[in-house]
């Protein structure tokens, strides 16, 4: 970005919070949010596009993220779910790939330990997880199993005395090329139920191969995992993970995180599109002076605000312990659909410059496709909500 570009903070509604949702945060939370935004502007935004172009993860960022101390803000630090959600949106706004790294480590991996491990296991593992001394991944999706993995988990676990033997394969596992631990979900051959295991990635028989040629979240190191007679001590079987219903306790929360990512991605599109409309001149005046351009910007903003409004209410329900699975499903389906529309409008507004990462919108546009698909496809989440309002399942 050149020095001649407009400072986003000099524009009206610089934070994009058109309905002042952030006023619902406590003063302590607003101060912490400002600290996070400064970090993102200083440490993440300047490197995001270059890392994406190269498809490389900035490993030297991990110690600085550790210092920022963002892991488990609700359970460990006492912040509200609303604060956690807005922070996740802000990280996504800076870079969806870094947000996905945090979402995998914090939401899926640490969330599995928090929800499904015994107290003894949590005491042994969580300190290193919270401090990012140990990086984690989440192994659920399989090469032949995505939406149907609940009833079709092919990776197996066989009890052998005081240990378990794991065999199978996982796909699209974020962080897996460099992480220390992976929570692997596998079907117990004895009772056909899905169990969870903390797997050390240095164990014999474990391998992870980076998935190449992605057009989305290129900074994220997704991998294919192979488990070939990987032996795991019984202590590393998560004590409270004994069926896929237990797994759903984790997925319900992480769907909310992805919906917040959809909010952040829309705010990112709004930031770039608005700045471009103010700076770019055609026919002797800025693009922002044309009515259709203003209409496009307002549509992006409206999508973002409506998505954020839904998420604010859902965070309040989560804080009250009243959020339901179908509400998370509707939120994920709705916000990602609005996101897809918003980033497409943003890409169109930039014209030819919208297809090169130099102007950032191409990266935002491409990253949205992954957010739209993971943590339950739009179609499956729609049917979960549909089942809730009809009492009839149309999933299968």
Quick description:
With about 400 residues, this protein is α+β, with helices and mostly antiparallel strands. It has helices at about 25-55, 60-70, 80-95, 95-115, 120-130, 150, 245-280, 290-320, 325-350, 360-375, 380-390, and strands at about 135-140, 155-160, 165-175, 180-190, 195-200, 205-210, 220-235, 280, 285.
Explain this structure.
- The protein is an alpha+beta fold.
- 51% of the residues lie in helices and 14% in strands.
- The chain is built from eleven helices and nine strands.
- The protein has helices at 27-54, 62-68, 81-94, 96-116, 119-130, 149-152, 244-279, 291-319, 325-349, 361-373, 378-390; strands at residues 136-139, 156-160, 163-174, 181-188, 194-200, 206-210, 222-233, 281-282, 285-286.
- The radius of gyration is 21 Å and the shape is globular.
- The chain starts with 26 loop residues before the first helix and ends in a 6-residue tail after the last helix.
Overview features:
396 residues, 7-stranded mixed beta sheet, alpha+beta, two-stranded antiparallel sheet, globular, 9 strands, 14% strand
H and E string: HHHHHEHEEEEEEHEEHHHH
Q: Please give the share of residues in helix.
A: 40-55%
Report the C-alpha radius of gyration, rounded.
21 Å
Overall mean pLDDT: 94
Low-confidence stretches: none
The largest pleated sheet is described as: 7 strands, mixed
What's the helix count? 11
- Count the strands? 9
User: Structural class, from secondary structure content?
Assistant: alpha+beta
Shape summary: globular
**Strand percent estimate:** 5-15%
Q: Terminal Cα separation, in Å?
A: 49 Å
């Amino acid at each position: 970005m050149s020095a001649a570009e407009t400072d986003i903070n000099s524009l009206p509604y610089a934070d994009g919070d058109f309905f002042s949702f952030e006023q619902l945060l406590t003063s302590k939370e607003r101060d912490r949010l400002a600290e996070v935004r400064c970090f993102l502007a200083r440490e993440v935004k300047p490197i995001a596009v270059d890392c994406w172009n190269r498809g490389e993860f900035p490993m030297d960022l991990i110690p600085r993220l550790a210092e920022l101390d963002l892991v488990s803000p609700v359970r460990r630090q006492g912040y509200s779910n609303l604060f956690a959600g807005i922070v996740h949106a802000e990280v996504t706004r800076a870079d969806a790939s870094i947000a996905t790294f945090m979402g995998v480590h914090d939401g899926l991996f640490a969330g599995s330990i928090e929800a499904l491990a015994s107290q003894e296991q949590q005491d042994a593992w969580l300190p290193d997880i919270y401090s990012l001394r140990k990086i984690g991944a989440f192994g659920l999706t399989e090469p032949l199993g995505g939406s149907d993995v609940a009833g079709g988990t092919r990776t197996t676990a066989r009890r052998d005395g005081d240990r378990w033997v794991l065999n199978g394969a996982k796909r699209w596992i974020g962080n897996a090329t460099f992480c220390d631990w992976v929570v692997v979900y596998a079907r117990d051959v004895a009772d056909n139920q899905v169990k969870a295991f903390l797997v050390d990635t240095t164990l014999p028989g474990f391998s992870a191969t980076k998935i190449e040629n992605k057009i989305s979240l290129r900074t994220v190191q997704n991998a294919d995992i192979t488990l070939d007679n990987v032996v795991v001590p019984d202590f590393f079987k998560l004590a409270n993970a004994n069926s896929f219903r237990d797994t759903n306790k984790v997925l319900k929360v992480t769907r909310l995180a992805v919906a917040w990512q959809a909010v952040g991605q829309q705010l990112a599109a709004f930031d770039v599109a608005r700045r471009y409309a103010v700076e770019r001149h055609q026919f002797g005046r800025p693009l922002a002076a044309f009515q259709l351009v203003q209409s496009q910007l307002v549509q992006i903003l409206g999508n973002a605000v409506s998505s954020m409004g839904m998420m604010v209410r859902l965070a309040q329900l989560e804080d009250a312990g009243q959020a339901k699975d179908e509400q998370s499903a509707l939120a994920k389906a709705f916000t990602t659909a609005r996101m897809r529309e918003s980033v497409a409008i943003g890409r169109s507004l930039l014209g030819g410059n919208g297809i090169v990462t130099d102007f950032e919108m191409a990266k935002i546009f491409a990253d949205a496709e992954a957010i739209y698909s993971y943590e339950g496809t739009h179609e499956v989440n729609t049917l979960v909500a549909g089942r809730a309002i009809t009492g009839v399942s149309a999933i299968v």
